[in-house]
Amino acid sequence: MKPRHYLALFVIGLIVPFAISRFQHLPGYMDADYYFAGGVELAKGNGFTEPYLWNYLDDPQGLPHPSHTYWMPLASIVSAVGMWIAGQTTYAAGRLPFILLSACVPLLTASLAFDISRRARLAMVSGFLSIFSLYYAPFMPVPDNYAIYMLLGGAFLLLVPRKQKWIPLALGALAGLMTLARSDGLLWLGLAGLTIVWHSVSSPRLALSKVEAVTVVRAGLLLLLGYLLVMGWWHYRNYSSFGSFMTPGGGRLLWLESYNQTFSYPAESITRERFLQAGWSAALEDRLRALNANAGNAFAAQGGIFLFPFILIGLWELRKEFRTRLTVTGWLILLVVMTVIFPFAGARGSFFHGGAALQPYWWVAAPVGLDRVIAAARRRGMFADNAYVVFQGMLVVLAASMTLYLVNLRVLGEWATEDGVYASVEEKFIENGISPEVGVIVRNPPGYYISSGRPAIALPYGDESVIQDVAERYGAGLLVLEGSGTFDWIQELYDNPQGNSAFIYLGEVDEAKLYIINPER
User: Fold this and answer.
1) Domain check: are 425 and 485 in the same one?
2) Is this model's pTM higher than 0.90 or not?
3) Is 298 exposed, middle or buried (0-12, 13-18, 19+ CB in 10 A)?
4) Is 416 a residue whose pLDDT tops 90?
């Protein structure tokens, strides 16, 4: 690989996410809203606090509330860096680092591919596949962990074969950064441990020699040190705020009976006893549905549909490479965790999110697999000498075409309908003389906050009385019900907005119905 190859990948890798970002006026979905809003609070000097609540799992005491008790803070920190550099807390400033990070993904993917194949042509194809990343492309320029995770996962796999003494420290630091980005980053700490054992053991057997055991222990301590250098302060923050090194409430996710229970109030209603009472048959059905969703994700989003068979062939071709075994092992563990342990989160996007760290390796494998298919065909007298270049070029063109289609579908379709709704709702509240200090209960609290600056609280999973309990505890005086985000419990309130005297109907904005919560219950 020559410098001009990397320059071309960087320039094109910058143009594509920048062009996509021109059509994204807001993050577009709650995860990115949350990360961006957290960056805004950091840039304002408010620290890791939030004037909004998007769930009740940690039994929040009120507003403002300690932030990032469910999602991890790295994306918010990166977004805040963009705001500090720009000197403003606009969305354009907050997403700038993610556009730049996206442009680095093809550089690292190509470096990983060249390190494995030693062929510049295949490395360039891998780099282009990471630019035209199909389902991932709409998410690359927004404040989220996709570009971050791809870079950290690719860097991890780039370092894995190396045996310098500092490698365990670096792998520990990368695992720490991945955990600071997402909770499932802890998986990479385990993969780093497997790497250490692989490097230290000279031949496979049940027992280690004394020298090997000492080497493993020393490397393991360096690994842990690297992890704590990155994550130590965050664990200390959690201990100072909650009395535990991990954030509270996460354990309740083990006992969910549906995704909507993520928004249950009070969170104490989510218990192991209720989970067991629901029966193992229901739990098995939920996990089979999650497996089906995750399998579809593996084929379409991670496997890239038409890339999928070439990825499988490429992985077989690279089966003797330790990184192949490590990557497949990590993917299988992630699949099990997001299917069996956290089926609702996994099926709703966590498997797609967590899989981003492994994505560079799939892009490395796909051109290798296609080359293997072409080589087999040429041995049978098919295709000319230039078949390798032609078919690899067609692979990139097809990826670019599908990426364009999916970006149009997601960014100009689904996300475009979200833009401006909350701003219009806020205008309606202001027109009715309602103070901006009055809190609102809404489907997407961080999204509402960044559109208005008004304190916002998640719509709880329950009936009207639960909404009233939440309003009383957290000082909310307003309610917004959206047609696409209303639970069955309160569908009647949406369909008949003037049928409950506890909620004073103000009107409708873009299918969102607005209420004042009557304090006289």
Assistant:
1) yes
2) yes
3) middle
4) no
